[in-house]
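User: quick one, sequence for these tokens?
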């Protein structure tokens, strides 16, 4: 009889632990009004929640005045908007997320914007919860837009009439390590929340007010 009671209590404790884990799934959200080196005040609001399978849901909204430099850096004659825009609006849907301690990075796609060229571009938003660190600091963030990489050419050996080398696919792994996930011959160029380590991002806001909360 005692063993049955113990088993029941153990099962209940496991259920409680599972419920606690699910209730504290990775998430982040908040709103900041901030100033960069350009002295312009902009606002960013966001919310995101990981789905436990590598993806995420949520959205981001950016608004405010911006100075957009000439984007035809290679002199190809491409026409993009440049100059001062008094109220740039950008809306993003998140699809990926990872969080560590008091930092989180979210990836997504621009679904709406005042500048049409931005729609479809990838976005990374990185935030830091000032209350979640070893010392209390101001919440901060950094974010960026990334054009999708289009590969419309295939390298070939000019001395071979039929060179299929660039079309072959393989995985390079360490034979001495069973846990080595390997590196593909054609890695994805998609910008995701896993593209860069969280420790690699820098924050350079001159001023910020608002609140961000990160649950790792």
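Assistant:
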């Amino acid at each position: 009889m005692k063993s049955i009671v113990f088993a029941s209590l153990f099962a209940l404790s496991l259920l409680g632990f599972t419920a606690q884990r699910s209730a504290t799934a990775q998430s982040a959200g908040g709103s900041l009004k901030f100033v960069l080196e350009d002295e312009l005040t902009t606002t960013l609001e966001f919310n995101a929640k990981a789905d436990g399978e590598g993806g995420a849901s949520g959205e981001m909204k950016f608004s405010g005045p911006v100075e957009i430099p000439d984007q035809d850096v290679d002199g190809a004659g491409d026409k993009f908007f440049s100059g001062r825009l008094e109220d740039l609006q950008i809306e993003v849907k998140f699809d990926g997320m990872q969080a560590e301690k008091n930092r989180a990075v979210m990836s997504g796609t621009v679904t709406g914007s005042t500048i049409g060229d931005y729609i479809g571009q990838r976005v990374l938003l990185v935030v830091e919860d000032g209350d979640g660190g070893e010392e209390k600091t101001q919440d901060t963030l950094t974010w960026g837009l990334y054009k999708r990489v289009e590969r419309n050419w295939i390298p070939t050996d000019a001395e071979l009439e039929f060179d299929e080398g660039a079309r072959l696919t393989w995985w390079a792994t360490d034979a001495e390590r069973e846990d080595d996930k390997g590196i593909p011959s054609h890695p994805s160029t998609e910008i995701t929340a896993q593209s860069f380590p969280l420790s690699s991002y820098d924050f350079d806001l001159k001023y910020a007010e608002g609140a961000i909360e990160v649950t790792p």
